[in-house]
Amino acid sequence: MDRTFLDWPFFEKRHHALVDQLTEWCAAVPLAVIDKDESASCRRLVSRLGDDGWLRHVVPAAWGGARSGIDVRAVCLIRETLAYHASLADFAFAMQGLGSGPISLFGSNALREKYLPRVAAGNAVCAFALSELEAGSNVSAIATVAERRGDRYEINGSKTWISNAGVADFYVVFARSEAQPGHRGLSAFVVDAGTPGMTVTENIQVTSPHPLGSLSFENCAVADSQLIGGPGDGFKIAMATLDVFRSTVGAAALGFARRAMDEACTHAGRREVFERKLADFQMTRERIAEMATEIDASALLVYRSAWTKDTGAERVTREAAMAKYYATEAAQRVIDSAVQLLGARGVVRGEIVESLYRDIRPLRIYEGTTEIQKLIIAKEVLEDK
Ligand code: COS
Asked: How close is the Cα of 228 to the center of ligand 1, in Å?
């Protein structure tokens, strides 16, 4: 994997050490092995990532984490490296961050104490339950309700496309608790798996296999101490959490793209066509040049966003949206080029570029589609004028 980007001014010495240690770890641990199903693999991966200390990077130090706050550059470097080796390992790591992010960023100390040490140790699997059938891109349209009854809330409604549904030990659930319409009425709650009234209604099979499903809530009672932030803070909690984790989606895309690039270059250097190496043809070189440039451009945007957040910016909405949009779209093009360079082999099940081709596709959709990222960027640019 190209490591020259680590010399860019975005990084500190500790980031180099992190990548060295994680690369060694990835070579030693059988990350790509699938157990009886993806859910079992995901649990095993979370537990191993916890045992070996990697999950400490998604939690603040006061609750078992590596540093006082979440170091977005470290999270990006870990996602990039894991994605290079095994997409399910990246997924398992990423969901621990996204699923616990609202608690780290906005939870009471009691909630942090209750959940975050288990997240860091890999003893609790997390989920982020935002999307609904009629509320994917439009978060303000969430219809799941949380009605206040004394010292608890009763949740009714349903969620879908929820990563780790059925595997998670707790879910951060966004629901409408306040009378105000649109984004102002939403709140965020932590709901433990096994809470009466919450059931997993469906497991969803997708192009890049990972645990995904739907949830139903019927008079599901949660104590008011499970509320994250205040009543009505849900929309801003969701958006601020996504601001942190969207750059990391770009980083995962970067890991996939770098792997595709390496596979393509190895193949082009070995494959003979018309009595020459594939790598000697100008059309191959043009493709390789485009792939390399898109990878570096993605890395610049991803690490610009992560560095901006780490060095104190309150919001990185525009930077994170650019990083996610550009890096995921570019990775799709890079991987498609790699498939093309491998020819027939590129579409054979079991080939690395074939699985990368399936793995990259959801990243252009989840945590905000490319189209939503473009709307966010345009809004930020126009507001600055
Ligand atoms: N951080 C903090 N606050 C934010 C914010 C952010 N990143 N983005 C918006 N806000 C605030 C705004 O400042 C505004 O506050 P006020 O009410 O005080 O004015 C409020 O939230 C509403 O913002 P906005 O008007 O921009 O909201 P919209 O309803 O127009 O929606 C989009 C904005 C479309 C950008 C949002 O719904 C979105 O990101 N959708 C995609 C969701 C997604 O990623 N889904 C995938 C599921 S997760 S896997």
From this structure: 17
One domain, residues 338 and 284: yes
Domain housing 53 = 4-125
Total tally of structural domains belonging to the chain: 3
Residue 98's CATH number: 1.10.540.10
**373 shares a domain with 295:** yes
Does the annotation mark 367 as catalytic? yes
User: Dihedral, CA atoms, 15, 19, 25, 27, nearest 10 degrees?
Assistant: 180
Residues in contact with ligand 1 by the CB-under-6-Å rule are 130-131, 136-140, 183, 235-236, 239-240, 242-243, 315, 317, 366-368, 372, 376
Locate 238 and state its tokens: 């969701």
Q: Give 306-353 pLDDT, tens digit per residue.
A: 999 999 999 999 999 999 999 999 999 999 999 999 999 999 999 999
Joined together, the tokens standing for residue 359 give 């793995």
Based on the fold, state whether residues 228 and 308 are members of the same structural domain. Answer: no
Strand partners, 170: 126, 192
